[in-house]
Structures are given as C-alpha cells and as structure tokens.
Amino acid sequence: MLELGEVIVNCADVSVFYGDTRAINNISIDIEKQSITAFIGPSGCGKSTFLRTINRMNDTIDSCRIEGRVKVDGEDIYAPSVDVVPLRAKVGMVFQKPNPFPKSIYENVAYGPKIHGLSNNKNHLDEIVEKALTRAGLWAEVKDRLHDSGTGLSGGQQQRLCIARTIAVEPQIILMDEPCSALDPIATSKIEALMSELSAEYTIIIVTHSMQQAARVSKRTAFFHLGDLIEYDSTDTIFTNPKEQKTEDYITGRFG
Amino acid sequence: MPSTKTEQMVMASLKARHRKEQSFKLLGIAAIIMALFFLVTLMTSILSKGLPGFFQYYVTLEVELERERLDPAGDLSDQSLFDGQAKKIIQEAVLAKTGAKKRNEKKAARKLVSNGSDLRLISFVQANPELLNSRQSVKFALDDDADSYFRGFVKKQTPEKQRRLSDLQIAYLDQMQADGLVSYEISDYLFFGSASRNAEMAGIKGAAIGSLLTLVVCFVIAFPIGVATAVYLEEFAPKNKITELIEININNLAAVPSVVFGILGLAIFINIFGMPRSIPLVGGMVLALMTLPTIIISSRAAIKAVPPSIRDGALGVGASKVQATMHHVVPLAIPGMLTGTIIGMAQALGETAPLLMIGMVAFIVDIPGGVTDPGTVLPVQIFMWADFAERMFIQKTSSAIIILLLFLIVMNGGAIWLRKKLERRW
Ligand SMILES: Nc1ncnc2c1ncn2[C@@H]1O[C@H](COP(=O)(O)OP(=O)(O)O)[C@@H](O)[C@H]1O
Ligand SMILES: [Mg+2]
Fold first, then answer.
1. Does position B426 have pLDDT exceeding 50, yes or no?
2. So what's the pLDDT on residue A1?
3. Are residues B425 and A62, on separate chains, in Cβ contact within 8 Å?
4. Residue nearest (by alpha carbon) to ligand 1 atom 2
5. What are the pLDDT digits (tens) for B70-83?
6. Which of residues 57-96 of A touch B (CB under 8 A)?
7. Model-level pTM?
8. What is the arithmetic mean of pLDDT over B349-371?
9. What is the 8-class DSSP label of residue A150?
10. Which of B311, B313, B318 sits opposite A89 (nearest CB)?
C-alpha cells in the first residue's frame, strides 16, 4: 500500500460524464501535498478530464456532469456553497498549449493578482510580478521588455509565462495538462527543472503522455486506462515493479 | 517515364484533369469580366449624369442695394429683410440688363432668374451690411429652364411652342452670355440647399443631416443592444430549446425585407407610442431594428473567433465568467463587432422603404436641428427627386447618388481602418 504524507486532494468515487458517456469510472485517489504527482495513460483515457475536476474547469463544458466527492484541503469543492473563483485561485492551471493573453508580459502576470485584489499599489504589484517571473525562471529573459506582448515570446517562454501567471496568485496546487507537449526538448527540460523547484512550495499534478517525463519529475504516478485508475503508486514502483499487467504492458510500450 | 502502375494511371487521367481545371478557370474569369462590365456601366452612367449636377449656371447682375427698400425697419432683422423688396430689386436688375419694356417682355425676362434669388440677396446683405446704399454685382442662380438651355437640352431649332423657353427668352440669355455675365460653377445650392420644388435651388443638406441624425440614433440603440445580446447568447445563455429558438429567429430576421421593419415601426412607435411621424428618432429606431440581426450575427462570429484557450487562461487564474468575458473576450472581439456594425449601418444608410413607412418622405424645407425635428434622409431624397420631371432634377439625383456612394465608401473605409487598427493577433 502506498504511504502518503499530508494529503491535500482527496477524491472518492469520482465519475465524470459527457452527456451519457462516462469518461471517468469511480476513481478514488489521494494526492500528497508539496510533491509532484503524474497522471499517465494512453490518450483519451480521461487524464485531462480527471485533472479538470480538481479545479472545476469542467464546469465550462455544458454536457459535463460529475458524481462523487472531491475534497481540496478538506473542503468539498462541489458543495453548493463553493464559489469557483477562490477555488481556482487556490488550484491554478497550466494548459497544454501555451495560452498567454494577447497583452504585455507584465499584464499577463499581473492579471490574477489584480482581479483578486492581492495588491493595492503599483509598487507592490511590480514586486509580485517580478517574484512570479523570477520563480518561473523567466525574469532574466524578459525584465527589459516587460511591456512587450506576451505572445511574442518563444513557445517555452510562453509556457513559463503561463506558469508565472499561475503562481502570481499564490495557489497551493498547480495542475499541468501536458505542459511540454508543444515544446522542444530544451524548453521541456527547463520546465521540468522548474517543476522540481516549485514542488518545494506547491503541490503539482501533471498529466503527461511521456513516461520518461513522469519518471524524471514525479514522486507518485497514477496510471489511467479507459476511464479507470488502474494503478497508483510511487513512481519507482510503477516503472520498475508494477502490480498490474496493464500497467506493465503500457510502460513497456506494448500499447499506447 | 512512368514506371509504376499508379503512375501510369495518374498520367492517363492527367489530361482530363487539366482540361477541367482550365474550363473552371475560364468560367471564373468570365464571371468576373461580366461583373466588372456591369460595374463600369453603372459607374459611367452615374458619373456622366451626376458630375454635371455638381455644377450649375449663375448670372451676375448689378443690383442697387437701396437701404429703404431692402430693409424697411432698418434693423437688418430677418423680418425686416423679408418685408423688404429684395425680389423687386432683382427683377429690376434683370429688366435693366435685358432692356425688357413691354409687359410680355418683362414677364419673359423675370422668369430667367431663379425664384429663390431674393433669399440669396437677403443673406448677401446680412453678410455685408456696409455695402448697403451702393451698386453691387451679385451672382444669382439661373432658373432651371435657362440652365437647361446652356447645357444644350433646349434647342433653338425646336419649334417655339414645343420648348419651355420662348424665342425672346433665348435671345435674352444669348445676350447675357455675350456680355460675359453667365458663369458655370460648382453648385452651392446642391450642398447647402434644402428640399425645394425649384430644381436649381434644391440641395441635399437637409437630407444629409437627416441621414446623419438617423444613423446616430441607429448606432446608439443598435450597437449596445446587439453586442450585449451577442455576448449573452455566446457566453452566458444555456444551450436549450429557448435559446435555440431565439437564435433561429435572429438569423431569420436578418433576411426579412426592410419594409416590414417600417410597418413594425409605424405600428409600434407611431400608432401605439404616439411618437411623431417623419422624425429621425423614429427613423433611427426602425433602422436599429433592421440592423440588430446583422450586428448580433457578426458580433457572435467575432466572439466565436476568440480562441477558447484565452477564456481558459482567464478562468484558470480565477477570473469569474463575467471578468473573463469583459477583460479578454470582448476586447478581442471588438474589431469584428465594429466591422459588422459599420456594415450594418452602411446598409441602413441606403435604406428607403422602411423610412417611407414612417413618413420620412414628407417635403421638408427646414434643416432638422435635432432628432425630433421632422426630416428626411439621402436615399429618400434621391427617391423623391427621381420622381420630378425637371431636367435638372435628373442631374441632381445622380449627384446625390454619388454623394451617397461617397458616404458608403467612407464608412466602409472606416470599417477597414478600424479593423486594421484594433486587430490584435494571438
Ligand atoms: N468536451 C468533451 N465533450 C465530450 N467528450 C469529451 C470532451 N472532452 C473529452 N471527451 C471524451 O472524454 C474522454 C477522455 O478525454 P480526455 O480527458 O481528454 O483524455 P486524455 O486527456 O487522457 O487524452 C475521451 O473519450 C474524449 O473523447
Ligand atoms: Mg488530454
């Protein structure tokens, strides 16, 4: 049985439906605080769908319906009284395709703090922006052109800008949905290094189709298949000594 | 040489394919040539008729600006000048110039100068009061029949009974021209005149201002409502039977003949709400109804074109739905929305039928000073002029069409400029 430290996300019997089709089947999983957990599995198995239940991004899809219970920090996030705004400030998200706003680099990072009222004066906001960009490893590259468009950066820089945008609001959890799939190997390794650094402060859940990436960065790995959680264990165990036949088939490349 | 079987088969079918491509290309070129031909014909016809309409013939007369006769009350007020004998003084100047003595001669001579010349003399006096009690050369418009004579539409060879000018009048005109008094100049009446039954005095100013006021009302009503509707339907409305029905209706409304909106306006704004007829306010409201579907449809397309990843990005950092929409989606969609709006407005600018229904076809001499003053609009003015028999109205109609086209070109140019200026790439 998997030994976890302090648990921050607790899912029990979660099922997700798109209309009448079930995309996630009764998944129960606990996520450890301040570590990196990877979701792997063949494409279409429901990794993104499950990830998006943790910050309720699935709410934006009309046909999507969720059963079961998801707790973040002990609070049921699907309770009727919960507002998604503070939830998403607490559970940030980085998307597959870098999606900076078509605004300046500064405004990209400042947007979250601004709408949440995290800063009431310009100097403080400047500090927040600088700190977020520094932690995202982007400050040195962009400090002289903060007011240039964020969309003018390279793909890897854009993705780090999106990470800076996310951490500027000081979330506890960062969800990353295949953050490197649109990037070249050098940009990818930068983001991976960044994730390891960030995991000291943040809980990171990363969806990846690259098993090497999961093996490199994550402490725990969950293997999904056709909407089921097949196996969840420490990354070492999953890659060296999986208990399930399906997991072994997948990581040895027999399907996927 | 083709080696594989596939290659051979491809080569065999290649000729037929090329032939098809060729004929398709020719068909397209033929269609474009046809379209260009019609366009050129239209433009030549309008320009050849309309450009002369921008000019008209004037005659310079020496008038005696006697103060007692022009300004009996002596205060240069409108009332005093209207009570004065401006008309008489001009007629005397004409008679003096032509040397008409007998009654029928005088009658013939008087008809040569435009009926509205007294107004021109009055404004001349108001602008130059220091010239009172002196003899001045002042330019007056010729009557439209005289104008037609100089343009060559009235011919001497035609028997006197069959033309609108008598031999005597023609003789007078020839004499004036020989004396160098007749000039062909840009028509100030066309630009600064208002509706008039006298062709030489008729102008588009009133109608142009009416069009402007109507469009302002139309924009102020249609743009916010249209954009708000589009934003609601795209971003907030649940997708159900009711919104589906609304969508279908909006799409169908875009294809409803414009006259129907006029009838609607007549029934609701005028008959039920009791608003006055013929005013730009009601005209603008009717045109707003007509333009709304266009604005809504194009605004929705503009919103749809904003990549969903931008919304996700905003929602992902905890923006509420309204914030994501207002901070990110709408600003990115604005150029598209404005383009659609301007195109809708350009359509509204050219609309006649719905405005006829609400009485904007009335003969209104005064220039509207606000949206609640009776007025008309350019296309309706064109429609009315086209109905008049006088030769000069034909030219003025074409001139007004050119001006309307210029308005449209300016508006479309504005739309393109706005789009280029506001467009941002993502
Ligand atoms: N918006 C949607 N509407 C309907 N079905 C969807 C939607 N998004 C994903 N699905 C379906 O849900 C399943 C899981 O998809 P997803 O979570 O994107 O998989 P993964 O991220 O593992 O590739 C797939 O079968 C997919 O077709
Ligand atoms: Mg996915």
1. no
2. 60
3. no
4. A18
5. 888 888 888 888 88
6. 57, 60, 62, 84-89, 92-95
7. 0.85
8. 88
9. G
10. B318
Ligand 1 neighbours by CB, cut-off 6 Å: A 18, 23, 41, 43-49, 61, 63
Residue B2's pLDDT band (cuts 50, 70, 90): low
CA of B413 to the centre of ligand 1 (A): 45
* Domain limits for position A209: 7-97+172-251
User: Which parts of chain A register pLDDT below 50?
Assistant: none
Could you give the number of structural domains in chain A? 1
Say whether B307 and A111 touch across the interface (CB within 8 A): no
Report strand pairing: A21-32 vs A7-18.
antiparallel
CA distances (Å), origin A16, targets A41, A150, A230: 17, 35, 16
Residues of A with Cβ-Cβ distance to B323 under 8 angstroms: 115
> Whose CA is closest to atom 6 on ligand 1?
A18
Distance from the Cα of B287 to chain A's closest Cα (Å) equals 35
Contact B65, B93 (CB under 8 A): no
CA-closest residue to ligand 1 atom 20: A44
pLDDT digits (tens, 9 = 90+) for B141-161: 999 999 999 998 888 888 988
Q: What is the model's pLDDT at position A254?
A: 78
Region of B351 on the Ramachandran plot (φ > 0 left; ψ -120 to 50 alpha; else beta): beta
d(CA B304, CA B151): 57
Does the complex come out with an ipTM higher than 0.90?
yes
Domain membership flag for residue A102: no
Q: What is the pLDDT of residues B89-146, one digit of tens each?
A: 999 999 988 888 888 889 889 899 998 888 889 989 888 888 888 999 999 999 999 9
- Give the per-residue SS3 of A121-144: CHHHHHHHHHHHHHHCCCHHHHCC
Q: Which residue's CA is the nearest one to ligand 1's atom 26?
A: A44
Fold of B205-422: MetI-like fold (1.10.3720)
Residue of chain A nearest B328, judged by CA positions: A101
User: What distance in Å separates the CA atoms of residue B291 and residue B337, rounded to the nearest whole number?
Assistant: 13
B interface residues, A as partner, C-beta within 8 Å: 238-239, 307, 309-320, 323, 327-328, 332, 424-426
Within a domain: A133: no
Q: Indicate whether A198 belongs to any domain.
A: yes
- At residue A256, the pLDDT reads 62
> How confident is residue B332, by pLDDT bands cut at 50, 70 and 90?
very high
**Which residue has tokens 């648990």?**
A7
CATH at residue A214: 3.40.50.300
Residues forming beta bridges with residue A7, ordered by sequence position: A32
User: Does residue A113 lie within any of the structural domains?
Assistant: no
User: Is A55 in the B-facing interface, judged by CB distances under 8 Å?
Assistant: yes
Among the partner residues B309, B315, B332, nearest to A88 by beta-carbon distance: B315
Residues with CB under 5 A from ligand 2 (ion): A 48
Q: What's the rounded mean pLDDT across residues B273-296?
A: 94
CA distance B403 to chain A (A): 40
For ligand 1, atom 7, which residue shows the shortest CA distance? A18
Q: Which one-letter amino acid corresponds to residue A180?
A: C
Residue-wise pLDDT tens digits, B210-243: 999 999 999 999 999 999 999 999 999 988 899 9
CB contact under 8 A, A166 and B311: no
With the C-alpha atoms ordered A145, A148, A151, A154, is the resulting torsion angle positive or negative? negative
Angle at B152 between CA B149 and CA B153, to 5 degrees: 75
Question: Domain coordinates of chain B in residue numbers?
Answer: 54-186, 205-422
